[in-house]
Structure formats: C-alpha cells, structure tokens
From TrEMBL:
It is found in: Membrane. Residues 211-222 have a biased composition (Basic and acidic residues). GO terms for molecular function: monocarboxylic acid transmembrane transporter activity. The gene is Slc16a5. It is a multi-pass membrane protein. This is MOT6 protein. Keywords: Membrane, Transmembrane, Transmembrane helix. Residues 206-236, 454-490 are annotated as: Disordered. It comes from the Eukaryota. Residues 20-451 form the Major facilitator superfamily (MFS) profile domain.
Amino acid sequence: MSQGEAARRGTAKPQDQGWAWMVLLAAVLLQGLTLGFPCCIGVFFTDLQHEFQASNSQTSWFPSIMVAVLHGGGPLCSILVERFGCRFVVMLGGLLSGLGMVSSSFCKSISQLYLTAGLITGLGSCFSFQGGVTVLGYYFVRWRTLANAVASTGVSLGFTLWPLLSQYLLEEMGWRNTFLIFGGILLNCCVCGAIMRPIQVASGSLPQSAKPEEGPGSKAEEAQLSNGASPHQPTLQQHTTRTKCFQVLQKYLAFDIFCQNKRYQIYTLGVTWMMMGFGLPHVYLVPYAIHNGVEEHKAALLISIIGVINIFIRPFTGLLSGHRVFTGRRIYLFSLAALLCGLSNFICVISAQFSVLILYCVILSIAMSGVGALVFQVLMDVVDMDRFSSALGLFTILESITLLIGPPLTGLLVDVTSDFHYVFYNSSFFMVSAGLFMGLSFCALEKKNKQREASKARLDNPSRYQYSETSTEPKAERQSPPAVEYVTSI
C-alpha cells in the first residue's frame, strides 16, 4: 500500500499507545467543553431575567433546550459518524457550538436564545461530545475502560471551571461579551477534532452497514424491475423505503427491546422519570442562593464545589461498582444514589445560609457521582451488548424529553408561588420516587424469576424452557462494547 493510499484510508497506527493518548487528552477537553458547559448557565439566570423581563419559567427553557438536545441528539450523531467519520462530526459540532454562542450575544429576546444557545449550541455540543467518545472505541481496545473513565473526568473539570470563569467574565464584561468569548472557547472543539485522525479499522468490521441495499429482498426486486415489471415499480419502491425506515428505527431506537425486556423497560421509565428532577439544582441553585442574600461570586462557587468533588468521587464509584460483588446488582447502587440525591435537597429547604449550602453541595455531588458513573453501566447490565447502541438511542431520547420540560414546569411553579423551595421539593419527589420504583421493581422481578426457576426445577421438565420469558440477565463483564456507539453522560 502506498503512502497516499494509506493516508486516504486512515492512519494505521497501533492502538492503545502513541497517538491514542493524545486522542484521549482531546476527549477529556471535549467533555469539559461540552457536558460541563450547561452547568454555568445558572450564573446568568438573574441577568437574563432582568435583560429580557422574563419569568423563571421562560428563562429556564434556554438551558433546558440545550441539555435536552445535547442528550437527545445521539441517534442523529451516530448516523453522521457512520457517514462522515468521527473527526468531521466533532469539528462540525465545534463550529455549531461556537456559532450558537456568538449569535446568542446579539439576541434581542429570550426566544431567540432558545434557537441560538439552546438548539444550535446544544446540537453542536452533542456532536462534539458523542463523536469524541465514539473515536475512543477505535483508538483503545485493551485500555478502553480506563480511557472512558479518564475521559469522564473532563465533565468534572468543566463543572469546576465553567462557573468560576462565567462569574468573572460576567462581572467584568457583562453577559453579551461573555457569550461572545464562550463562542471562541467552544471553537476549540474543532482543534480537538483535528487531533482525532482517522484510524484504519480491521477489514470486515463494517461490511454490511456499508451496503444495506444488497439484502436478499433487494436483489429480487432488482430482477423484477429488469424484466420490465414497470407497473409494480412504485409499490416496490414504497416497500423498499418502508423497509429501510424500519431498519433505521430498529437500529437506533429499539422499541422491540422496550416491549420485550422488562428490566430495560423498568430502568428506562425510572431514569426518564428521575430526569424531571435531576437537573433542577443545576439550573436553580445559583439563583436560589442569590435570592437569599448570598454574594454572586460565592453562589457561583457552589457549582464548582460540586465539580471538584466529582473529579475524585466519580472514578472511585466506577471502580467500586466494577467489583465482582456488585455484578448484576449495580441497579441497587444506582437506586440508592438516586435516593440520596433526592433526600439531600431537603438541606436547602432547612436553610439557605452559605455554610449550609456548601454541605448540601458536598452530599449532592457524592450522590450525583454515583448516578453519573452507573447510569450507562446499569444499561449495559440489562441489555445485550450487541443491541446496546440501539437501546441507548431510545433511552437518551426519552430522558431528553423530561430534561427539557422539568426546569420550565418547576419555574412556572416558582413564578406562581414566589417560593424557591418548590425547586427542591420537586427535585426530591422525582428523585426519591424514581429510586424507589427502580429498586423495588428490580427486587420484585428478581424474586419472581427465582420463584419461576424453583418451580421449573421441581417439575424437572426442560421442554418448558422454550416457553419461558426471555432471560435478560447481564452477560459476562468481559464482553467488549461495539466499536461504534454513541454515549451520553450525566
């Protein structure tokens, strides 16, 4: 193979070494620039309200749209990655993110922010983040788990640095100039994407997806058309179109798994419900502190405290959950983390003093670390790895809906009652109820399966196994995830 041909086909570099570690560094920066960015929006909440004379509900739509698009754009991002590659998608995301924030600095109404900072920046962040995570699957095989764990520390770094930088720039330059500077900072996603050179994958890894039209049915249709069966051509084309649409939905939105796999069904519904309250503290904690007399720079420091603790606790939680003792039981750890996250909100109801809010941030960050570290590990436990990518598509779409509507609905309640305590009441309700639902449902399902197995053992009739419900127990942990997938994080 000539050098020119090798350059066109990709960089044939050894995996898990050399340039792979530069790609990992770029992935860390990407996660800090994308997933960590929405946490700083609360710093601008009060200024945006005064600028546009907007209510709490109207203002909270802006960060809600951003976060919802960031999580829910996974299927679209996966399609673009398969078509154009990770490097292109990451750089495209950087351009969209930068363009969105630069445009936001010229907005004349809060509704314009929904489009620029919410939709455009959110979609760009989705492309950059998920494209950066996907490329790690190409560059790392042996150290893939370590690479993903290290890359996730970028989220915590973003949580730490974005609020402090936002508060400083806001005091010095105002929110419009700050958004303009943010646009330039987010353009660095393009630099990170440029580092992610295409790597030559093993031959045969993507043979079928490259030629979906060569299925068994398409050749028969082709033969009929070549024989002059023109009256049937519209019908065959419609059938082919429907088949392709069904294949796309089956690949990226696994409704069949949702209907057949009770564990996946319970987990997806539980997390979707939980997301109604999970993002509320990120949006309203800073406005709540300022409303109760806390200085603005101290209020911004609260979000940074959550980020600093996440840097250390999240990797520890991931390593702890990987112990064989928790194999098949991680859902209970996740439910416990959701319960703790919900119960911690009552600290804010007791008092709004800065020292009490610091205690709240410490406890909340520990619980959030458990949720963030386990959310996708549990999903891998409840579905087969060969369908993980499609199961993740439906999972992220559903959770993005509740991430979108949760803060505005709570903001509307605050507008009506003029009481910020309802933010934390709502968050506690959704988090606690979701944690109890998932934990008790999985416990009941596990008990039911044990009773069924005991009954089968007594009957000693192996032929009855074919009529039993399909087992959804997690496969062996050593099974590697597919090379191309899109992953979100919390």
